[in-house]
Amino acid sequence: MQTLKLVAVSAGLSRPSSTRLLADRLAKATEERLTERGRPVEVQVVELRDLAVDIAKHLVSGFPSPALGSAIDAVTRADGVIAVTPVFTASYSGLFKSFFDLIDPDALSGSPVLLAATGGTARHSLALDHALRPLFAYLRALIVPTAVYAASEDWGSGGDEWTAGLPSRIDRAGTELADLMAGRQPEAPAQDVDEDVDTDADEVVPFERQLADLRLD
Length: 217
Description:
Blueprint: E1 4-10, H1 18-36, E2 41-47, H2 52-61, H3 66-76, E3 80-88, E4 91-92, H4 94-101, E5 112-119, H5 127-138, E6 142-143, E7 148-151, H6 166-181, H7 207-214
Parallel strand pairs: 1-2, 1-3, 3-5, 5-6, 5-7
Antiparallel strand pairs: 3-4
Helix pairs in contact: 1-6
């Protein structure tokens, strides 16, 4: 059976980095789900911090270094991509955006991509929806339904009655990415059916019948 290739892109700047930690945990969750399905997988992590100078030079020269070219090839040829960025000024980081600016607009078309971000406060979690999703929608990627945001207080937290904890969200997102990589669509959540609803309410009445009902005797 063909080995699937999973590439995690981390735009963290510090070492150690919570962004890299989140990328590693998402990659591990995805790998475990694929292994359970009997699908061999090869995991690679691309650290953009180590490529920052090469990315800047490529933007002005148009020529990638061997290391940057290898990273771009890994992402564009992957069966699944995990993209993780720290949130700066309510959006993705400049390093993260600069790297994906170098990706051919058609290279990720139809490719499963899991989006994730880290930040100091939960107030910036909407960056996943107003910044990252539009970017990868433009690239026509197949975006995993569950995106994962990890604020400082999420690490080590089990969540509460309203919000699932970080480990639960990581596992759910990893499962969804594994489903897409293995060629399966994620199962839609079951919807409750109200037995009291009149199923005839949506019946389409032919136009001729509506006219007949309006006629006077």
